[in-house]
Amino acid sequence: MTGRGFFRSWSRMAERTEAEQPDWLSTIATTSGRLKQEFRYDVWRQNTRSETDYTFGAGKGLEFIVAPRLELMIGVPSYVVHTSSGPVPFAQGTPRDGFGDTPLMLKVRLASAAPKEGNYLVTLLLSATAPTGSHAVGMHHAVLSPGIALGKGWGKFDVQSTLGANLPTGNIAGLGRQFLSNTAFQYRAASKLWPELELNSTSFLVGKNAGETQAFLTPGLGFGRVHLGGRWRFSAAAGLQIAATHFHTYNHRWIVSVRFNF
Fold this sequence. Notes:
Elements: H1 3-19, E1 38-47, E2 51-57, E3 61-67, E4 70-75, E5 79-84, E6 98-99, E7 102-113, E8 120-130, E9 143-154, E10 157-168, H2 172-175, E11 177-187, E12 193-206, E13 213-229, E14 232-243, E15 251-261
Antiparallel strand pairs: 1-2, 1-3, 1-15, 2-5, 3-4, 4-7, 5-6, 7-8, 8-9, 9-10, 10-11, 11-12, 12-13, 13-14, 14-15
């Protein structure tokens, strides 16, 4: 098979795979269980007690369907910039900005139905980060994050949820282990607008914050998909994570996301 023939066959397989599931827009913070062909780039701005941080990339990247029930994401290492508003926690002269670790994700679709045939999905998730980051920003150990994504739609309204855990392979005392829960309520409105509200929570099981739970309410608005030509489509979204619990490690995280589907 020639290269052109292989690409055409792979493209048709990806189209069939996407047609066999809901067509919801990717949510802002909750991982989508949809298998898709997409390049996504997010930017975060968040406040901590002593500084404002900017994260470029935010664990997103290139997602592509490799088999009828299988998708792979190869992420772009995030670049983190700190702007201190208080005492600098690092020794003077020590670099505080830099690249984070490389994110990877495998999605395995267990069940799904198109909008007119049930409008639901069940997908296994296996995420990981490879310790490629700088000394100041990287985790220095691989982190495995198994999980499951569930979703159900009723007409223009849908609910998407994920459950998962962060399991570092080393330095458990420092990095800890966390249980993650996210639920997004999304509505397909007019003019390609997708208002949504998410509940994002993290329970710290092991480590310095063991026993604590932080939760955020994340209102947001998506836009798309706009046809650009050929198979290319554009969408975007923005939202704000607001702490809903007394304990939280950050607050008021602005998220801006751009996506190109192909």
